[in-house]
Write a structure and sequence with these properties.
It contains 5 helices and 9 strands. By secondary structure, the chain is of the alpha+beta class.
Amino acid sequence: MTSFLLFDIAVATTTINIEHYESLFDQPPPKEAIRSHSKILKGGITTGIDRSGLQPVGWGTTIFPYSIEQVWRGLNHEENHVVLSPVSKTTIIKGSACAENRQVFMQLPIPFLDDRWWITEQNTNIKLEKQSLGKMRELSWKKIPTVQSLEYKTQGIINPSGIEVEETRGSWILYEVNEEETIGIYHSYVDPGGYLPAGPINSLAAGSISDTIVAMQNYISHIPSNSCHMKKFTN
Protein backbone atom coordinates (compact mmCIF):
# COMPACT_ATOMS: atom_id res chain seq x y z
CA MET A 1 0.00 0.00 0.00
CA THR A 2 1.47 3.35 -1.04
CA SER A 3 1.94 5.79 1.81
CA PHE A 4 0.75 9.35 1.41
CA LEU A 5 1.89 12.43 3.31
CA LEU A 6 -1.14 14.40 4.35
CA PHE A 7 -1.30 18.06 3.50
CA ASP A 8 -0.08 20.52 6.13
CA ILE A 9 -3.42 21.94 7.21
CA ALA A 10 -4.45 24.16 10.08
CA VAL A 11 -8.02 23.51 11.15
CA ALA A 12 -10.20 26.58 11.09
CA THR A 13 -12.56 27.22 13.96
CA THR A 14 -15.62 25.09 13.33
CA THR A 15 -19.00 26.77 13.11
CA ILE A 16 -20.97 23.91 14.64
CA ASN A 17 -20.30 21.51 17.48
CA ILE A 18 -19.94 17.96 16.18
CA GLU A 19 -21.05 16.56 19.55
CA HIS A 20 -24.31 18.51 19.20
CA TYR A 21 -25.32 16.09 16.41
CA GLU A 22 -24.20 12.93 18.20
CA SER A 23 -27.77 11.81 18.90
CA LEU A 24 -28.39 11.65 15.14
CA PHE A 25 -25.54 9.22 14.39
CA ASP A 26 -26.57 5.73 13.30
CA GLN A 27 -23.31 4.25 14.61
CA PRO A 28 -21.78 6.75 17.07
CA PRO A 29 -17.97 6.66 17.25
CA PRO A 30 -16.22 6.64 20.65
CA LYS A 31 -16.36 10.02 22.39
CA GLU A 32 -12.57 10.16 22.42
CA ALA A 33 -12.61 9.94 18.64
CA ILE A 34 -15.07 12.84 18.38
CA ARG A 35 -12.98 14.99 20.70
CA SER A 36 -9.70 14.12 18.98
CA HIS A 37 -10.46 16.10 15.81
CA SER A 38 -9.58 19.35 17.58
CA LYS A 39 -6.03 18.05 18.19
CA ILE A 40 -5.20 17.66 14.50
CA LEU A 41 -3.69 21.08 13.97
CA LYS A 42 -1.51 20.34 10.95
CA GLY A 43 -3.10 17.36 9.28
CA GLY A 44 -2.01 13.84 9.98
CA ILE A 45 -3.86 10.94 11.55
CA THR A 46 -4.79 10.21 15.15
CA THR A 47 -5.80 6.66 16.11
CA GLY A 48 -6.77 4.87 19.28
CA ILE A 49 -8.58 1.98 20.91
CA ASP A 50 -11.66 2.72 23.00
CA ARG A 51 -11.97 0.29 25.91
CA SER A 52 -14.81 1.97 27.79
CA GLY A 53 -17.40 -0.61 26.71
CA LEU A 54 -17.62 -4.38 26.74
CA GLN A 55 -15.73 -4.57 23.44
CA PRO A 56 -12.65 -2.61 22.33
CA VAL A 57 -13.30 -0.38 19.31
CA GLY A 58 -10.60 0.95 16.99
CA TRP A 59 -10.93 4.54 15.75
CA GLY A 60 -9.09 7.16 13.73
CA THR A 61 -9.48 10.81 12.76
CA THR A 62 -7.96 12.86 9.99
CA ILE A 63 -8.42 15.97 7.88
CA PHE A 64 -9.07 15.28 4.22
CA PRO A 65 -7.71 18.10 2.02
CA TYR A 66 -10.80 17.87 -0.17
CA SER A 67 -14.39 19.09 -0.20
CA ILE A 68 -16.98 17.11 1.71
CA GLU A 69 -18.69 16.27 -1.60
CA GLN A 70 -15.53 14.68 -2.97
CA VAL A 71 -14.84 12.73 0.22
CA TRP A 72 -18.46 11.60 0.40
CA ARG A 73 -18.36 10.32 -3.16
CA GLY A 74 -15.12 8.47 -2.49
CA LEU A 75 -16.44 6.67 0.58
CA ASN A 76 -19.62 5.42 -1.06
CA HIS A 77 -18.52 3.01 -3.75
CA GLU A 78 -17.39 -0.14 -1.92
CA GLU A 79 -16.74 -2.18 -5.05
CA ASN A 80 -13.93 0.25 -5.94
CA HIS A 81 -12.32 -0.18 -2.51
CA VAL A 82 -11.05 -3.76 -2.86
CA VAL A 83 -7.48 -2.63 -3.63
CA LEU A 84 -7.49 -0.45 -0.50
CA SER A 85 -7.67 -3.30 2.02
CA PRO A 86 -6.93 -7.01 2.57
CA VAL A 87 -10.50 -7.83 1.48
CA SER A 88 -10.38 -9.98 -1.67
CA LYS A 89 -13.97 -9.56 -2.84
CA THR A 90 -16.64 -6.89 -2.47
CA THR A 91 -20.03 -7.18 -4.16
CA ILE A 92 -23.21 -5.14 -3.79
CA ILE A 93 -25.93 -7.79 -3.60
CA LYS A 94 -28.90 -5.54 -2.84
CA GLY A 95 -29.40 -1.98 -4.04
CA SER A 96 -26.76 -0.09 -5.99
CA ALA A 97 -23.55 1.84 -5.42
CA CYS A 98 -24.08 4.98 -3.34
CA ALA A 99 -27.71 4.00 -2.59
CA GLU A 100 -29.22 4.11 0.89
CA ASN A 101 -29.61 0.71 2.64
CA ARG A 102 -27.52 -1.16 0.07
CA GLN A 103 -26.18 -4.54 1.19
CA VAL A 104 -22.56 -5.47 0.55
CA PHE A 105 -20.88 -8.89 0.63
CA MET A 106 -17.18 -9.02 1.55
CA GLN A 107 -14.67 -11.87 1.68
CA LEU A 108 -11.43 -11.70 3.69
CA PRO A 109 -8.70 -14.33 3.15
CA ILE A 110 -6.66 -15.23 6.26
CA PRO A 111 -3.45 -17.22 5.66
CA PHE A 112 -3.28 -20.58 7.49
CA LEU A 113 -6.71 -20.01 9.08
CA ASP A 114 -10.34 -20.02 8.00
CA ASP A 115 -11.29 -17.12 5.75
CA ARG A 116 -13.96 -14.72 7.00
CA TRP A 117 -16.96 -13.26 5.19
CA TRP A 118 -19.87 -10.96 6.02
CA ILE A 119 -22.72 -8.92 4.62
CA THR A 120 -23.36 -5.41 5.87
CA GLU A 121 -26.12 -2.89 5.33
CA GLN A 122 -24.74 0.54 4.43
CA ASN A 123 -26.67 3.63 5.51
CA THR A 124 -26.03 7.24 4.47
CA ASN A 125 -27.96 9.01 7.27
CA ILE A 126 -30.03 11.45 5.27
CA LYS A 127 -31.47 12.94 8.49
CA LEU A 128 -28.02 14.02 9.72
CA GLU A 129 -27.20 15.58 6.36
CA LYS A 130 -30.45 17.57 6.31
CA GLN A 131 -30.36 18.77 9.93
CA SER A 132 -26.73 19.89 9.60
CA LEU A 133 -27.57 21.68 6.32
CA GLY A 134 -25.13 19.48 4.46
CA LYS A 135 -22.21 20.23 6.79
CA MET A 136 -22.10 16.67 8.15
CA ARG A 137 -22.42 13.18 6.66
CA GLU A 138 -22.36 9.66 8.01
CA LEU A 139 -21.75 6.40 6.21
CA SER A 140 -22.48 3.60 8.66
CA TRP A 141 -22.55 -0.16 8.35
CA LYS A 142 -23.68 -3.12 10.41
CA LYS A 143 -23.85 -6.85 9.79
CA ILE A 144 -27.21 -8.16 8.61
CA PRO A 145 -28.80 -11.03 10.59
CA THR A 146 -27.21 -14.44 9.96
CA VAL A 147 -30.55 -15.93 8.91
CA GLN A 148 -30.70 -13.42 6.06
CA SER A 149 -27.10 -13.96 4.93
CA LEU A 150 -27.60 -17.74 4.95
CA GLU A 151 -30.69 -17.27 2.79
CA TYR A 152 -28.55 -15.41 0.25
CA LYS A 153 -26.10 -18.32 0.39
CA THR A 154 -28.85 -20.91 -0.14
CA GLN A 155 -30.18 -18.95 -3.11
CA GLY A 156 -26.71 -18.87 -4.67
CA ILE A 157 -26.51 -15.07 -4.54
CA ILE A 158 -23.22 -15.39 -2.65
CA ASN A 159 -20.67 -18.21 -2.60
CA PRO A 160 -18.52 -17.51 0.46
CA SER A 161 -15.68 -19.57 1.89
CA GLY A 162 -14.72 -19.87 5.53
CA ILE A 163 -16.63 -18.53 8.54
CA GLU A 164 -19.18 -15.74 8.74
CA VAL A 165 -18.04 -13.10 11.24
CA GLU A 166 -20.05 -12.81 14.44
CA GLU A 167 -20.39 -9.03 14.28
CA THR A 168 -19.10 -6.03 12.39
CA ARG A 169 -20.18 -2.40 12.58
CA GLY A 170 -18.77 1.09 12.28
CA SER A 171 -18.98 4.40 10.47
CA TRP A 172 -17.32 7.33 8.76
CA ILE A 173 -18.44 10.70 10.15
CA LEU A 174 -17.60 13.72 7.98
CA TYR A 175 -17.63 17.39 8.93
CA GLU A 176 -17.07 20.20 6.46
CA VAL A 177 -14.52 22.69 7.78
CA ASN A 178 -14.51 24.72 4.56
CA GLU A 179 -14.69 24.09 0.82
CA GLU A 180 -11.29 22.38 0.77
CA GLU A 181 -11.04 20.67 4.17
CA THR A 182 -13.17 17.88 5.66
CA ILE A 183 -12.75 16.25 9.05
CA GLY A 184 -13.12 12.47 8.91
CA ILE A 185 -13.87 10.36 12.00
CA TYR A 186 -13.69 6.59 11.46
CA HIS A 187 -14.40 3.69 13.79
CA SER A 188 -14.82 -0.03 13.33
CA TYR A 189 -15.56 -3.08 15.46
CA VAL A 190 -15.24 -6.66 14.25
CA ASP A 191 -15.82 -9.91 16.12
CA PRO A 192 -14.34 -12.43 13.68
CA GLY A 193 -15.77 -15.51 15.39
CA GLY A 194 -14.11 -18.91 15.18
CA TYR A 195 -10.60 -19.15 16.61
CA LEU A 196 -9.70 -15.49 16.34
CA PRO A 197 -10.57 -13.64 19.58
CA ALA A 198 -12.09 -10.22 19.00
CA GLY A 199 -9.95 -8.35 21.56
CA PRO A 200 -6.53 -8.90 19.95
CA ILE A 201 -7.98 -8.35 16.48
CA ASN A 202 -9.27 -4.90 17.44
CA SER A 203 -6.11 -4.04 19.37
CA LEU A 204 -4.10 -4.66 16.22
CA ALA A 205 -6.61 -2.59 14.27
CA ALA A 206 -5.15 0.79 15.34
CA GLY A 207 -2.34 0.34 12.84
CA SER A 208 -4.64 -0.98 10.14
CA ILE A 209 -7.04 1.92 10.73
CA SER A 210 -4.21 4.32 9.96
CA ASP A 211 -3.50 2.34 6.79
CA THR A 212 -7.20 2.46 5.89
CA ILE A 213 -7.31 6.25 6.24
CA VAL A 214 -4.13 6.73 4.19
CA ALA A 215 -5.47 4.42 1.48
CA MET A 216 -8.74 6.34 1.41
CA GLN A 217 -6.80 9.61 1.08
CA ASN A 218 -5.09 8.20 -1.99
CA TYR A 219 -8.33 6.95 -3.49
CA ILE A 220 -10.21 10.20 -2.92
CA SER A 221 -7.41 12.17 -4.57
CA HIS A 222 -7.95 10.20 -7.80
CA ILE A 223 -11.54 8.91 -7.80
CA PRO A 224 -12.15 6.67 -10.86
CA SER A 225 -14.46 8.08 -13.49
CA ASN A 226 -16.78 5.07 -13.06
CA SER A 227 -17.38 5.85 -9.40
CA CYS A 228 -20.98 6.62 -8.46
CA HIS A 229 -22.11 10.14 -7.62
CA MET A 230 -23.94 11.06 -4.45
CA LYS A 231 -26.96 13.33 -4.65
CA LYS A 232 -25.87 16.84 -3.75
CA PHE A 233 -27.57 18.30 -0.68
CA THR A 234 -30.14 21.01 -1.33
CA ASN A 235 -31.73 23.00 1.45
